[in-house]
Amino acid sequence: MFYKILGKTNIRVSVVGFGAIMLDQVNDTDAGNIVSKAIDGGVNYFDVAPTYGNSQYVLGSALESYRKDVTLTCKSTERSQTGITKELEESLRALKTDYFDVYQLHNTTDFDEIEKIFAPDGAMEALIKAKQKGYIRNIGFTCHHDEAALRMMDLYDFDTMMLPVNWLYWIKNNEGEEAVTKALKQNMGVLSIKTCAKRRWNPGEKSIYPHCWYKPIDDDDELAKLALLFALSKGVHSAMSPGAENMLMLMIDIINNSTSMDFDWELLNKKVDEIDGEVIFEYAR
After folding, report:
1. How far is the C-alpha of 42 from the C-alpha of 244, rounded, in Å?
2. Which end of the chain is more exposed for a tag (fewer CB within 10 A), N or C?
3. Which is nearest to 72 in space by CA: 100, 103, 110?
4. 251 near 196, Cβ under 8 Å?
5. Distance of alpha carbon 255 from alpha carbon 158, whole angstroms
6. Residue 34 belongs to what H/E stretch?
7. Spatial separation of the C-alpha atoms in residues 147 and 126, rounded to whole Å
8. 118-122, 174-178, 244-248, 265-269: which range is least confident on average?
9. How many Å apart are CA 162 and CA 192, to the nearest integer?
10. By three-state DSSP, how is residue 102 classified?
11. Strand partners for 71
12. Which residues, in sequence order, are CB contacts of 26 under 8 Å at separation 6+?
């Protein structure tokens, strides 16, 4: 496994992160096995949220004996000081931990909601207090578009940013570069979602992944490798796995069988031209 320092947090993280939404509705025994396999493969970054069904409760039990050796992160869609404090406290209990290495304001794409976050008695006040008390060690945010990410970075000196650094989205929609460039200039940790997403499900196409609203790259190992190495080449510190165990294990195998982080730009551009379907997000500023 390759590791990077997560920006100003100084935390050493695996370049493949564990997207814990995959544990929703998984029993404790199976969840424990999945977590153990990931750790054996070198993964030390775990990401979860209370909006991911019962995954935080399952992950809490599975990670209990590993807690001191991993980076555990959580996030919230609550926008008020009262709401996010309550959710933070419940997540700490669910995950059997005294603190989160990173706690993130989740899905900060709507500008009206961003205003609520930074308003008096908003969520930001609660997170600053929680950091002062040691319940969270670093504060981050997640979003899906450059415009919102840039706005968030203007309003606070965050420790981390999570957003899609996806090969097709970046190349076809020109989304990701502005936000990543600014975050890296501010020495923020950059976390990627949708790294190994291929496209939206086509009309009438049946999804076999209950936690993937998009088609992951599960049918082209070469493209999966290109997509993952693309994100890492752009400065991503850790790329979250899609919500499926097989995709997590594929990403682990790609990194553990790679001797370098180099990739073939010409081949990647060829793969872009071959995609028959919509990119994961449609967005125009």
Report:
1. 18
2. C
3. 100
4. yes
5. 28
6. helix 28-40
7. 24
8. 265-269
9. 5
10. strand
11. 45
12. 34, 55, 58
Dihedral angle of Cα 270, 276, 282, 284, to the nearest 10 degrees: 50
The Cα–Cα gap between 80 and 82 comes to 5
Give the HSE-up count for residue 252: Cα atoms under 13 Å, Cβ half-sphere: 21
Record the pTM.
0.95
Each residue's pLDDT tens digit, 113-124: 999 999 999 999
Residue 240: helix, strand or coil by DSSP?
A: strand
- For residues 193-215, average pLDDT: 91
Residue with tokens 């399952």: 58
Give the CB-side neighbour count of residue 155, counting CA atoms within 13 A.
19
User: How high is the pLDDT of residue 282?
Assistant: 64
- Give the contacts of 106 (CB within 8 A, at least 6 positions apart): 49, 51, 75, 76, 77, 141, 142
Residue 273: predicted pLDDT: 87
- CA-CA-CA-CA dihedral for 191, 196, 199, 201, to nearest 10: -110
Q: Are 130 and 103 in contact (CB under 8 A)?
A: yes
Locate 162 and state its tokens.
Answer: 């999570």
